[in-house]
Structure formats: C-alpha cells, structure tokens
Amino acid sequence: MNGSRDVVFYGPIGRAVKQIAPYVETDPVGIYAACLSMWSMAIGNRVFLDAGYRRSPLVSTAVVAETGAGKGVSLEASRHIMSDSIGRDIELRETSGLTSGAALVDHVYRQMVRTEEAYGIADTRVLVIEEEWREILERTARDSSFTSKIRHCWDCAVLRNTTKKKSENDTPQEVRNARVVFHTHITPSDWRKFVSFTDAAGGSFNRILPIALDDVPLLRSRKLPKVDTSDLVSAFDWASSERHVIRLTKAADHLSWVLRRAERVLLKTLPKHQGDFVSRTAEQTLRVAALLATTEGADLVTRAHMDAAVTFVRHSVRTVLDLTKDGPGKKAKATPEDRVLAELTKHPGGLRSAVLQRASGAHASDLQHMEERGLIFHQEIKDGPGRPVKLYRAVGKSGGVPRPARSASMPTSTGGNPFLMALQGV
Q1: CA–CA dist 141, 407 (Å, integer)
Q2: Which of 385, 389, 383, 386 has the alpha carbon at shortest distance from 367?
Q3: pTM
Q4: CATH number given to 3-323
C-alpha cells in the first residue's frame, strides 16, 4: 500500500513531521496521526463544532502495521514534536490499560472530581494510548459496554456507570462533556482477528481511523533532531484563551457537502462489512480539517484545510478497505443492543419495557443509552389501573420516526466521481 505517500502533511504539525521524518525509521503518517490525536485531546475542552459547545473535533487513530514496522517509533517521535506545546497536558491526562466500559468511565470520573477539587474546574480530557491494543480488545470482548463507551466518547455524549449500590455512600458515576481520545497500535492480523464485524456495524470502529504504515529505509543514525514548534505553542495559547466554535468558508462548506453526498454513494458501492467501517468519512474529514485550522490559531476552516484532511482520511479509508477485503473478520457475540434491535424488528408495533428487557437480556440503562443515541424511542402508555408503562419502538419501524427517504437525484454509482475513485484507489 502506497497511500501514505499521498498524505499532505499540513500546517505546524505537518512541518514538524516532515522535519523529523528523515531521522526516524517509520512512515511519517504514523507520527502525523499520533500528533493529531494528541492535539485533539488537548484542545477538546476549548474548541467546538457547534454553537451549543457540545461536540468537539476529537480524532482517534489506530496505527496498523506489522511488528517492527515503526509503530513505537512513531509514538516516540510524536511525543517529541508535541512536548513544547502540549507535553504537560499529555503527561497529566494520558492513561492505558482500560479493559471495560466501567473502568473507562471510572477513570474519567475520578479525574473530573480530582481536578475540580484541586483547581475548581472539572477537566474531562483523557488520552488513551494503547501500544498493545490486541490485549485490550481480547479482554474487552467479554464486556459489550466498552465499545458503546467508544461511541459515546466520539459523540461527546454523557458517560455513566450505573452499577448497583453496595452501600448508602455509593452514587452512580456520571460524566458530562467527556473528551476522550484513543491512539492505539495493532498488527493487521490482530485487527482482522479482534475487531468484530458486529462492533463495526454498531458504529464503534468507524469512530477510530485506522492508519497503515509503509516500509521505510533503515538508518545508520536514529537521533531525534530539535524541531521548531513555536507556532504550535502560540496556537495552543490561542486555543486555551477562550472557547472557539469552528466555522467554514463557503468553499470548505461546499466540499463538506460534496463529501457527505460522496459518502452515501460510497456506502452503496461497498459490501456492508466494509461500508460499516467508513460510514463516518465525511465528519472525520471535517474534524481533521478543524484540527488543522486550530494548529494555525484559527477557528475558520478553509478549502486548504479540507483538501489536506481529505488526503489523510482517504489513506484511512484505503487502510480499512485493505484490512477487510477478505471478509468481515471476527463475528462477536450478540450484544444486548443487538438483541434489543432484533426484538423490536420482530415486533414493529413495539414492546413494553419489561417484556423487551426479558426477551433481550438488556437492562434499563441499556435502553436509556440506546434512546440517547437515537436508535430507539419510547411512549408512555396506560391501558388500565396502575402506573403508565414504557412502550419501546425502533427508529424507522412502523409507528416510529421515519428514516429519510432516498433522494431521487442521488447518484447510484461512482459515475467517474474523482473523490470516490480516489477513496477506492481506482
């Protein structure tokens, strides 16, 4: 795969990556990916994609390469680049080894409480770096809540631990405005073995951009040089000074719209097991472009930012298409969420809460999380004495919220679309 050679290394981070690349035995795209993830965590509580200050341009990445291909080297180089600007933030907020959804929420919650007590500000930024992601995926396969928490983190949604009380002092843990970013390392064979088709279909692994590394020549000397990151230092000072809402120029907004349409066409041309992995291509591109703008101390995304972001996300799309070309890979055990949707599909008229929980094995908290994500909804009904009960339906099913109809003008194939052809490596 030669896709990484087409990636445009843009802005202060890109210049630093190009400056350090001749001195390291790794594909520079891995360094670039790690730097973008670190930067997105650092500015996650000050830069937003919406005027309601709810969603931030968080970008999680997974470096996919064989053993000895430079995954660890790329991480070391990225730390070197980012040390002057956000090194302290990384040091204070980096963690690893979280093998369950409960452990993830507990870590973010404890950090939030600790920073609020010490500084009067609840800091929910966390950078999860897993250099042996295989071990984490193997252990989290027994905990379906972990992948749902990945989705919540990317969506900047509320994180909750709703365990049963063991004492009167126990209270449910709840984290609002969590800003959790992942940067992981894994081999292609382990990706195919442990990244499940079911989790991809549920939306967990299209929220993490897989980045393949190309081979690079061996070096006689491997000493990291001094890099000039003064522009990044200034950009982080700008980002930290106040809250910023990302805006787009007319040209950037037009390209964003084109990418959204292109994504729909791409999903119709791919097998489902591949389409599930790339179904957030357009928003991932916008998030990367927003990060590139902020590295220049700006909240205005231009066409240049979007064009550079396209090359990075395009490489990720090529990576995942290559990883999944032989089939969907591991099929995970059905989760409570899968069983809930299956039951509601069989009963389009809806199911009462107690019946649905008994049939699917889901808990009330599972139903609440699914409702927050827009997968299901409920109505209060009362058809006799006693308290009203909840009747659940799946979104888009009979009597539910209709799904948007397909546009008659939407193209049904690539039709020479240069963006789609580039995405698929045509």
Answers
A1: 38
A2: 389
A3: 0.77
A4: 3.40.50.300
What is the pLDDT tens value at each position of the chain, 426 positions in all? 455 889 999 999 999 999 999 999 999 999 999 999 999 999 999 999 999 989 999 999 999 999 989 999 999 999 999 999 999 999 999 999 998 889 999 999 999 999 999 888 899 999 999 999 999 998 887 777 888 888 889 999 899 887 645 555 667 889 998 999 999 999 999 998 888 777 777 778 889 999 999 988 889 877 899 999 999 999 999 999 999 999 999 999 999 999 999 999 988 898 888 888 999 999 999 999 999 999 999 999 999 999 999 999 999 999 999 998 876 555 556 778 888 999 999 998 899 999 999 998 888 888 888 888 788 999 988 877 778 889 999 986 444 444 444 443 333 334 444 444 545 443
Cβ pair 319, 312 in contact under 8 A: no
Residues 184, 133: contact at Cβ < 8 Å? yes
How far apart CA 44 and CA 81 sit, in angstroms, is 19
What is residue 96's three-state secondary structure? coil
Q: Where does 272-406 have alpha helices with state H? A: 272-275, 281-294, 303-323, 336-346, 353-360, 364-372
**Which of left, alpha, beta for 302 (phi over 0: left; psi -120 to 50: alpha)?**
beta
Tell me which residue of 46, 44, 47 sits closest to 58, measured CA to CA.
44
Class of domain 334-426: mainly alpha
Ranges for all domains in the chain classified under CATH 1.10.10.10:
334-426
| Contact between residue 99 and residue 105 where contact means Cβ atoms under 8 Å apart | no
Positive/negative CA dihedral, 145, 147, 148, 154: positive
Tokens describing residue 141 = 């396969």
Cα of first residue to Cα of last residue in the chain, in angstroms, is 13
Q: Where in the chain is the domain with CATH 3.40.50.300?
A: 3-323
Structure tokens at 389: 């009960």
